Amino acid sequence: MNGTSSAAPNTSGVVALIMDANPDLTARDIEHILATTATKNDPENEKVVLSTANGDFVAHDGWVENAAGYHFNNFYGFGRVDAGAAVKMALNYDVNLGEREQTPWIGAGVQAEQDSLNLTIADNNAEGATHSIDVADDMTIEAMQFSFTIANAEMRSDYSHPDIPGFIQSSAGSDMAIEVTSPSGTRSVVLASHHAQLYPALQSDYTFAQGYVHLPSVHFRSNAFYGENAKGTWTLKVVDTAAPQQVAFSAGGALSVVFPNTAESVLEGWGLRVTGHK
After folding, report:
1. Tally: H helices and E strands in the chain
2. pLDDT tens per residue, the chain (278 residues)?
3. Residue 136: is it exposed, middle or buried by C-beta count within 10 angstroms (0-12/13-18/19+)?
4. Which pick of 184, 185, 239, 277 has the fewest CB atoms within 10 Å?
5. Count of CB atoms situated within 10 Å of the CB of 4
6. b/e sequence 167-203, b meaning 16+ C-beta within 10 Å
7. CATH number for region 101-277
8. What is the pTM for the complete model shown?
9. Quick one: which of 140, 139, 131, 137 has its CA closest to 112?
10. How far apart are CA 64 and CA 77, in angstroms?
11. Which of 102, 142, 137, 144 has its CA nearest to residue 227?
């Protein structure tokens, strides 16, 4: 047994030990203890680099040390829980996180009820589309949330192609990669590409949003910035990472086809929200 099926019960057991050692701790305190005492597993975990027609994109950074000194990995989070170190810290816990605060959503473009940013995300191009948002709140980060509005005309559940029979699906969604860089310079890939997103974004009523890859109804959370200061300029980069070969497959006897997107995606807006303390 491995993956989250193993990590969840292991971590839950350690949390129980922490709470037994110090029942006065809050959930935030426990999260802080786990993040502070975790150790690197697979310390030589390597980067994953994708080649595009116009340069390379790093889809996975391996282990990153953020500006607050916390190690983070998209595969492993803060790493392996250390029950002994966590319980020891719980018994001698003297950290005051203060009152939990959360900013409202801070948006740009359509997510701020403004005109679309209308930034083209060039196909198979590592340069991508970039945009920045300034955060005025002087807060220590406990978690960051992000949302995106990204359109592509081919992301339709009823899309058809004049030269290809069967049900057609565009690669525009699965090619999409999203990274966010904090004011302190820490980079977090909140969405790596090649994740098999073949259908349009779902709306709150569970119907497809025809022509959209992502909508703000889906929130992305990153813990990579834990302990950093939120104040300053946050920079988004959205990349279309590939021009894959056409792939055909059969599902229930019906022919389906995934083909390289010919329409370029468009970043219409994005937003972020800070959870933390002052």
Report:
1. 3, 18
2. 788 898 999 999 999 999 999 999 999 999 999 999 999 999 999 999 999 999 999 999 999 999 999 999 999 999 999 999 999 999 999 999 999 999 999 999 999 999 999 999 999 999 999 999 999 999 999 999 999 999 999 999 877 777 776 677 889 999 999 999 999 999 999 999 988 788 899 998 989 999 999 999 999 999 999 999 999 999 999 999 986 666 766 666 666 778 888 899 999 999 999 999 99
3. exposed
4. 185
5. 8
6. bbbbbbbbbbbbbbbbbbebbbbbbbbbeebeebbee
7. 2.60.120.260
8. 0.93
9. 131
10. 10
11. 142
Which of 14, 29, 6, 32 has its CA nearest to residue 223? 32
Q: Using the CB atoms, write b or e for 10-48: b if 16+ within 10 Å.
A: ebeebbeebeebbeebeebbbbbbbbbbbeeeeeebeeb
Per the CB < 8 A criterion, the answer to whether 276 and 139 are in contact is: yes
- Cβ atoms of residues 120 and 240 within 8 Å: no
Cβ atoms 76, 61 nearer than 8 A:
no
**Please, which residues have CB within 8 angstroms of residue 20's CB and are 6 or more apart in sequence?**
none
